[in-house]
Amino acid sequence: MAKADIGVYGLGTMGSALALNMADKGFAVAVSNRETDWIAPFVSEAGALAARIIPSDSLEDFTNSLKTPRVILFMIPSGPPMDAMIDAIRPYLGDGDTIIDGGNADFNDTRRRSAALAGSGLHYVGMGVSGGEEGARNGPSMMVGGSAHSWEQLRPMVEAIAARFDGAPCVAHLGPDGAGHFVKTVHNGIEYADMQMIAETYGLMRDGMGWDAPRIGAVFTRWNDGPLDSFLTEITAKTLQSLDPATHQPVVDVIVDRAGQKGTGRWTVIEALKLGQSASAIEGAVAARAWSSEPEARNAVEVLYGKSTASLEIAEDIMEQALLAGRILSHAQGFAVLQAASEAFDWSLDPARIAEIWRAGCIIRSALLDDLASAFRTDPPLGQLILCEPIAARLSRTVPAMRQTVSAAISAGLPVPALSGALQYFDSLARARGTTNLIQAQRDFFGHHGFERTDSPGTHHADWHQG
Length: 467
Ligand code: 6PG
Known about the structure:
Radius of gyration: 25 Å
Mean pLDDT: 97
CATH class of the largest domain: Mainly Alpha
Strand order of the largest sheet: 3-2-1-4-5-6-7-10
CATH architecture of the largest domain: Orthogonal Bundle
Strand content: 5-15%
Order of helices and strands: EHEHEHEHEHEHEHEEEHHHHHHHHHHHH
Distance between the termini: 91 Å
CATH superfamily of the largest domain: N-(1-d-carboxylethyl)-l-norvaline Dehydrogenase, domain 2
Number of helices: 19
Low-confidence stretches: none
Structural class: alpha/beta
Bound molecules: 6-phosphogluconic acid
Number of strands: 10
């Protein structure tokens, strides 16, 4: 066989699916894996596509089976394994070769590795891949960070395998070094917030209204035909309506309410704070997962304080609008974090392009993202989505429903950390004169930190201890 167009190292779920997707699109794909006994079963399961797959069980053979300059996609655990991989493969690579990390990597690691390889002749790309196994096999959304040289090398392959929205591939070169992984991290932060706000709304119906899972699922099915149309709304409807064959109960009712997290949501919050931002809806979602992992404490607190059993009455369309407002605001927060990072790292991120490549293939794909892409194309005032006319009109319509839903939930003792976080963000921004004048007074009182006056420029102090 001729040499391969691209190499895929790491034949776990995502790596295998991406390799098959590329072979399907006519590319010759070299594959390898640390556990070499995974390679033969992968090739035999590839069926007819095996004709375009070149397996190797050593790094030397793997790199020799690639066209030069080489493009190698690594789908391996992020962190130290990627550093070890770079060290191991470097001796077999040459000028102009590109190493792509397609995992959910910390963008700080991506920046560090890019800087370490700069000037070596090797190029390093951090590429966020979204869409899970199904997306990887049939069309993911991909967020690329790296050099223009690398982008030209990998562009034909990634454009061929990407999900399509109105025929356009959902992949873009978003900036240098860590830009792609940063955008993917924020994508996941928004994913966390969206999932959490959906779960909070499910909680209102389950615990506040006493509805069973299939009935709530039917509500999500209806909502998926309206402005909440999205992949996450759709799978929520399906999961709520699935029955457990062993118990004939809804599957969700036999699942322990303790959520896992691999770190990307938490990274979004950490990076937001480092950038002087606060993505409160995303933070609410990360917090909810963290609190969920303390079942013993939750049981003890419920026993000690008693569980609120107040019932709720909120119309279905009010909850629908509340969820839509939450979705808009959590995206607005995510995009504000992206804008801050773009300025801090000089990435020139294009928010419209990011919204465009999130319209298909990725986990947060939704009808809303198409509207957000159009909104960003109109250059919103101060770069703020919520100041953009069509988005502002939608928020004006839906925020009252969100306020009604959140206040009813709080009165009934039902937790809504992400929805309320989103609302607090909106209410804080919607107040030209807030209350931090008092914070400044307190800071000056105890630390002589100084404050600005409303009527005169410069830094001022007050004599707080007079009299
Ligand atoms: C995606 C997903 C994917 C993965 C998350 C889940 O875009 O395809 O975000 O990357 O499902 O990493 O993260 P948690 O395990 O932290 O929920």
